[in-house]
Specification:
Length: 372
């Protein structure tokens, strides 16, 4: 009888807390409402068949060859869900830049770069996934291949998608009421033809904001010497959206908001330093965040990113969740499965990846699971 009474008390408390959380008079258990859809997430596999080593600053150890094992584990999990993942967001840096033979341990094979062999090895694992793979471009892909080369290698029918209509940013609706946006965080960057506007813009903004000779080459200089605060984002391994993509983003977000959609943004480089650091956000971070705030008006529920290997999380003032995935490169087993509900995204982390419940601030639903 005491156990039954205790259970009734907890049930009553759960109802009260849930009503307070949503401002509703009743609460349906989360277990009673199925997910609308599921998708997989992974970032910064950065595979290279070389010895483990630390980064330039010595702040992290990188397990370069472990990426294939993690990818294999992730694919098995995405395929084995009770309802398998409908798609996978691969958020950039599939392979490491040293495969190009231009720096680090890669200098040992500078005459026979391993870029294609490394990419083939990772794709051979990803190809076992039953769901389509949507790829963000990371800086390490661009250390290995040209933009045209990436388009040719990572656009494979409906199986792999990295660009549409010649651009590496696009949007799609995986389910009624939802819009996903893939950004190109290197539209403005030094990782492109020097004749292009995006290259010239990147050089100017870096030189205007970073006093160090950071354009002299990979790994040859401390990018952050005598720097602090917001200007630390102006380094060669970051990039920006640029004006044209920002205009497209504003229109896409406005259109999705007017349609009553929930919006999820995917990007390699994070957009808000508060989920990572000033060192690892896009050049035009303030302008992009203004678009999400002013055009989204609460409809942008999440930004999913990679690039900052330790991962991170922050919920901004609009209610948008900025989640940076931890990297297999530095954490070995590390990936996720995300369930999309009407009132939240449920991130199920595997290995080192942290799990999260990302409640939607502006959802007018009575479904929730309070934490007692």
């Amino acid at each position: 009888m005491r156990a039954m009474a205790r259970g009734q008390q907890l049930a009553g408390l759960s109802s009260v807390l849930c009503a307070a959380w949503r401002g509703k008079s009743h609460c349906t258990s989360a277990e009673d409402v199925p997910a609308r859809f599921r998708f997989g997430v992974i970032a910064d596999i950065q595979f290279c068949d070389i010895a483990d080593a630390t980064n330039f600053s010595g702040s992290e150890t990188r397990f370069y060859s472990h990426g294939l094992q993690t990818t294999r584990q992730a694919v098995a999990q995405w395929n084995q869900q009770p309802t398998p993942a409908e798609f996978v967001l691969q958020l950039g840096d599939l392979i490491d830049g040293q495969n190009s033979g231009t720096y680090g341990q890669g200098l040992a094979f500078q005459h026979e770069p391993r870029s294609q062999a490394a990419l083939d090895a990772v794709l051979s694992e990803l190809d076992h996934c039953h769901a389509p793979m949507y790829h963000a471009i990371g800086n390490h892909e661009l250390y290995n291949f040209s933009w045209e080369g990436l388009s040719a290698r990572l656009n494979v029918g409906d199986k792999h998608v990295v660009s549409r209509d010649g651009e590496f940013y696009w949007s799609w609706s995986p389910h009624p009421g939802w819009t996903f946006i893939m950004l190109n965080s290197y539209k403005v960057s030094v990782m492109q033809d020097v004749q292009l506007d995006g290259y010239r813009q990147a050089v100017k903004v870096i030189r205007d904001n970073n006093p160090n000779d950071v354009l002299s080459g990979q790994g040859n200089v401390n990018y952050f010497e005598n720097m602090s605060g917001p200007k630390m984002r102006f380094v060669p391994f970051n990039g920006g959206l640029g004006e044209e993509q920002r205009e497209w983003l504003a229109k896409t977000v406005s259109r999705a908001r007017d349609a009553g959609h929930k919006i999820v943004v995917a990007t390699h480089v994070p957009l808000d330093h508060r989920c990572c650091s000033h060192k690892t956000v896009v050049f035009d971070s303030p302008l992009v965040l203004d678009i999400l705030k002013n055009q989204g008006r609460g409809s942008v529920v999440a930004v999913l990113a990679g690039h900052s290997h330790s991962g991170g999380y922050f919920q901004d003032e609009t209610g948008c969740h900025h989640l940076v995935l931890k990297a297999p490169l530095t954490h070995k087993t590390c990936f996720g499965v995300v369930e999309a509900f009407d009132d939240r995204l449920q991130v199920h982390g595997h290995g080192a990846q942290t799990s999260h419940t990302l409640w939607f601030k502006n959802t007018a639903l009575g479904t929730c699971t309070p934490k007692l």
